[in-house]
Specification:
Layout (H helix, E strand, L loop, with lengths): L5 E9 L7 H19 L7 E5 L1 H10 L1 H12 L3 E4 L13 H19 L5 E3 L9 H7 L4 E5 H6 L11 E5 L2 E8 L1 H6 L5 H14 L4 E7 L9 H7 L2 H11 L4 E4 L1 H7 L14 H6 L6 H11 L1 H4 L15 H4 L1 H23 L7 H12 L17 H23 L5 E6 L8 E6 L2 E6 L5 E7 L4 E2 L12 H6 L38 E6 L16 E2 L6 E6 L3 E12 L2 E12 L4 E9 L7 E9 L9 E4 L5 E4 L4 E13 L4 E24 L2 E17 L5 E11 L1 H5 L14
Parallel strand pairs: 1-2, 1-8, 1-9, 2-3, 4-5, 5-7
Antiparallel strand pairs: 6-7, 10-11, 11-12, 12-13, 13-14, 15-16, 15-21, 17-18, 18-19, 19-20, 20-27, 21-26, 22-23, 22-24, 24-25, 25-26, 25-27
Helix pairs in contact: 2-3, 4-5, 16-17, 16-18, 17-18
Length: about 725
């Protein structure tokens, strides 16, 4: 007689992104990862599935090897099924198929060696699914994965049909898909144990052989606000495990592998492109979210989560690249490097084992970590240290490819392509020190400025823009806050008072080399009020471009024309990069200005990637005099030089000019949400370099330079290791 039992799968996903602070990972280890293992070790009869992202697993192997040893022992006795995935937690539709297969297969091999197990299933990062992924997963050796029940409802299934796993197919490749339960994601560990068991019992009474999968973040067991006390000190986890053990007569706690091996498929299904429900909401444009919320409210929360939700769809994950151009630019840079690596390997198959290409591939994969490529309930894109970490990895890959392709020889590269996938061509000037990306369509502004020696993109700034959740901040600065454990989707609070005063939005994309012609009496002293007073701003004007390449230097000439107070004004700027130099020179000429009143010619720079709030990060004069800390508001009149020093990184950024200029500098911050609440986050330093142009001037010219001195970093750098290459793909 076949035993009547509901199969319950407990699947946890533990992850820390590339570039997260060490103390944050350490705290998550002590609050979530270690205590969960300590508790469940005492229940050897309760198996579970565990996915740990490669970013975190590498950290654990280095910093907490005893955890890995204990985990290996639990795997050995059959209590834990290890799930694989993309090595560094990429969202798979975002990266090329070659990198999908490489990341998945490489991580499976790593886990099988580290934990002495076999990997059959995988975690789908953020459950972002497209049907064509099926073939990539199968090619990488994966048998099954977990999506949300939302995906299956979007395919037309009702809740009553989501009682097992399904098979799907692409180009003849067959994969098994498990639906994870959204109701359980909101219940565990926030609802009382009896409520969770009662919910499972209701399913059992209707479908006694059903499979129910709880699949969610392991950080909700200790790291999410107030959960450490709730889960461990107040004993929620122990009570839950005791309840599962106490109901073994009808609950069979099991693993995905055991379900696949003992149960037939519940049917064949093709799943539409989707992610979990909340992400489809976060990706909506801010001005469309209220309409969506109104529809959701009209439907009602109960029916929303079930039948009616099948017929309502919000957004599509790829549109994060449309909502946030900064994401698209970072993605495009990743694609450029991936394509370059692939080209070099195809041109020389014998080079695949070269240690430089190995390092490039590893850094590329790390630069595909998904977290800063989007934004929802977590900080994501709004966290500058995560964006900087992605560029650090991508530029590290670029350096390794340069070393392979050019050895120690200096080079110059001048090219024009649609680098950022916006449908128009940009211009790239590069040598072995700097890479500069210009957008003629946006006034010849700089949107990426890479200092390769310290792997920093000094132009990785962020534009301040409206978010749907900003309305909550305006409505109530004293948002509901409770000391009880809640889902991050429910218990949101402001982390400081007066956040509504910082809800300021930019009229244009933040970048560098943005020119403004301002009234002569305008006060250039505020982070947001002077730009709207300009006679002319180049960010909205397409410039014509012409490139010039010589043996030892490359340059681009950009010319824009505008009607300024009824006068046809022409702005010409020539940007030049020399071989082997880490400085950029810009020559300006303004003509047609003789009938204008006195005005101020201002160049806006937005410098990102430099931290603030520490004594070793400061503004300086050419003579070394300190003019304030980075992040301070400063105003300097008539100087040839302004420096920005970050001793921790080891970089001195200098802005100079032949004729004296005045400077105003101020920090730019954004207001965003994270798992712990609404917060203000420093993004970049805006520098305005300006000159007063008197009335009657027939033509005005100037030459400015931006330099990046990394001698501090070089002086303390250890020689690079030349380890034997071991392919991770």
């Amino acid at each position: 007689m076949i035993r009547r039992a509901l199969r319950f799968v407990l699947a946890l996903h533990n992850h820390q992104p590339i570039g997260n602070f060490g103390n944050v990972i350490e705290a998550a280890y002590h609050d979530s990862y270690a205590p969960f293992l300590e508790v469940i070790e005492q229940y050897p009869d309760i198996p579970f599935c565990l996915h740990t992202s490669g970013c975190l697993m590498e950290w654990l192997a280095e910093h907490q090897p005893s955890y890995v040893t204990r985990l290996r022992e639990m795997v050995g006795r059959g209590q834990v099924e290890i799930l694989g995935g993309g090595f560094y937690e990429p969202i798979l539709p975002m990266i090329p198929p070659r990198d999908r297969v490489g990341q998945i297969a490489g991580y499976s091999a790593y886990l099988e060696d580290l934990l002495e197990t076999s990997v059959r299933g995988m975690w789908m990062a953020e459950r972002v699914w497209e049907q064509s992924l099926t073939s990539d997963l199968v090619q990488a050796g994966i048998e099954y994965t977990i999506l949300d029940d939302f995906h299956f409802r979007q395919a037309g299934l009702s809740d009553s049909e989501l009682n097992g796993y399904f098979t799907t197919e692409n180009q003849g490749d067959v994969l098994k898909l498990f639906p994870g339960s959204e109701p359980m994601r909101y219940m565990i560990p926030f609802q009382e144990v009896d409520h969770c068991i009662h919910w499972l019992r209701q399913i059992y009474d209707r479908h006694p052989h059903a499979v129910v999968v709880f699949a969610d973040d392991g950080e909700k067991f200790g790291t999410w606000p107030n959960t450490k006390s709730h889960v461990y000190e107040q004993g929620w986890l122990v009570r839950f495990l005791n309840a599962l053990r106490g109901h073994q007569d009808w609950i069979d706690v099991t693993t995905l592998a055991a379900c696949v091996d003992s149960l037939p498929s519940a049917g064949h299904l093709y799943v539409p492109d989707a992610s979990y429900r909340e992400m489809t909401e976060w990706v909506l444009p801010a001005d469309r979210s209220p309409s969506y919320e109104a529809i959701r409210s009209k439907l009602g929360e109960t029916s929303w989560q079930h039948e009616r939700a099948s017929f309502v769809r919000a957004g599509y994950w790829r549109n994060f690249k449309a909502k946030y151009p900064e994401t698209r630019e970072m993605y495009a840079r990743m694609m450029e490097i991936s394509g370059r690596l692939d080209r070099l390997i195809r041109e020389d198959r014998q080079a695949v084992g070269d240690h430089r290409l190995y390092e490039a591939r590893r850094a590329l994969y790390r630069g595909q970590c998904n977290c800063p490529y989007w934004h929802g309930a977590f900080g994501g894109l709004y966290l500058p240290h995560l964006r900087s970490a992605i560029y650090e990895q991508l530029l590290g890959a670029e350096k390794a490819l340069d070393q392979f392709e050019h050895a120690d020889k200096s080079y110059l590269n001048l090219s024009s392509e649609d680098f950022d996938f916006d449908g128009v061509k940009e211009i790239k000037l590069a040598n072995n020190e700097l890479a500069v990306y210009l957008s003629p369509q946006r006034g010849g502004s700089i949107y990426e400025l890479d200092v390769l020696d310290v792997t920093r993109n000094l132009a990785a700034s962020l534009t301040r823009r409206p978010e749907a959740y900003h309305a909550k901040i305006r409505q109530d600065q004293q948002l509901h806050h409770t000391e009880n454990a809640q889902s991050i989707h429910d218990g949101i609070r402001c982390k400081e008072e007066g956040l509504d005063r910082h809800l300021v939005y930019d009229a244009y994309r933040r970048g560098s080399l943005i020119e403004h012609l301002l009234p002569g009496d305008v006060a250039i002293e505020s982070a947001h009020d002077w730009a709207g007073q300009s006679f002319f701003s180049s960010w909205s004007v397409p410039f014509r471009s012409r490139t010039v390449k010589a043996a030892d230097r490359i340059s681009v000439e950009l010319q824009g024309a505008a009607d300024v107070l009824g006068q046809p004004v022409t702005i010409l700027k020539q940007i030049e990069l020399e071989r082997g130099k880490s400085s950029l020179s810009v020559r300006y000429r303004l003509s047609g200005i003789d009938r204008l009143p006195s005005f101020r010619m201002a160049i806006e720079w937005n410098i990102a990637g430099l931290a603030t709030g520490a004594a070793d990060r400061y503004f300086t004069s050419a003579e070394g005099e300190r003019w304030g800390l980075l992040g301070d508001e400063i105003a300097i009149e008539q100087t040839h030089w302004l420096g920005l020093v970050d001793e921790w990184i080891g970089i001195d950024v200098g802005l100079g000019s032949r004729q004296p200029a005045s400077f105003v500098a101020y920090p730019i911050s954004t207001v965003s949400q994270s798992e712990s609440g609404f917060e203000r986050v420093h993004q970049q330093i805006t520098l305005v370099q300006y000159w007063d142009v008197p009335v009657g001037t027939a033509e005005w010219s100037a030459e400015v330079t931006l330099s990046a001195d990394t001698s501090r970093a070089r002086s303390r750098r250890l020689p690079l290791r030349k380890d034997a290459a071991t392919s991770i793909a």
